[in-house]
Amino acid sequence: MIRKLYDWVLHWADTPYGTWALFFLAFSESSFFPIPPDILLIALAIAKPQKAFNYALICSCGSVIGGCAGYLIGRQFMLGVGNKIVHFYGLADKVEYIHNLYNMYDAWAIGIAGFTPIPYKVFTITAGMFKINFTVFLLASFIARSARFFLVGGLIYHFGPNIKAFIDKYFNLLVIIFTILLVLGFILIKFLF
């Protein structure tokens, strides 16, 4: 089933509706859909590297707005829709752990989930469920999601279509390295200011 969804997502890159599909994919992935928008972002950016940053912006906006929808699901509809989504991803037993992450790290938990391959939708839903400050949630989501998608767009813009194989092969490693650098950057800022 996931492979069929993956192929379905990729087919949008060959249609005139690719940009709209990217926005809606990023929106839905942040609240319920299993396929990350990076796949379509990469396909569109490789087809038109000069528009890579435009695609990254569209993806970021769709993702943050979708994250707000996930927040709303958790805040208003957790007992119905929210629990079903969390159970679908097999993370129901992790909800209390995520709550502890919010208590300990607040925006950091949202930021790391927004940048890494961790299912961001579970964090958007639980952020609403645990009534995380919406402004903090929104800012952390915008920074993390933009960093992720602009990194991909920037690599394709600068290195062209040849970077696709590299991104596909090392995506998780690249995310981990960037996350470590991001965390170290925040720690450095905390100690300097």
Average of pLDDT: 84
Which word captures the global form?
Answer: globular
- Radius of gyration from the alpha-carbon trace, in angstroms: 16 Å
Number of domains: 1
What proportion of the residues form beta strands (DSSP E)? under 5%
Distance between the termini: 49 Å
State the low-pLDDT regions, or none: none
Q: What characterizes the major β-sheet?
A: none
Number of strands: 0
User: Can you write the helix and strand succession as a string?
Assistant: HHHHHHHHHH
Q: Count every helix, treating DSSP H or I runs of 4 or more residues as helices.
A: 10
Structural class: mainly alpha
Helix content: over 70%
Quaternary form: single chain
Describe this structure in words.
The chain has 193 residues and is mostly helical. It has one domain (2-192). The protein has ten helices and no strands.
Features:
193 residues; mainly alpha; 10 helices
Describe the structure in brief:
The chain has 193 residues and is mostly helical. It has ten helices and no strands.
Architecture blueprint of SSEs:
Blueprint: H1 2-11, H2 18-29, H3 38-47, H4 52-76, H5 78-88, H6 95-105, H7 107-115, H8 120-129, H9 134-159, H10 163-192
Helix pairs in contact: 2-3, 2-4, 3-4, 3-9, 4-5, 4-8, 4-9, 5-8, 6-7, 6-8, 7-8, 7-9, 9-10
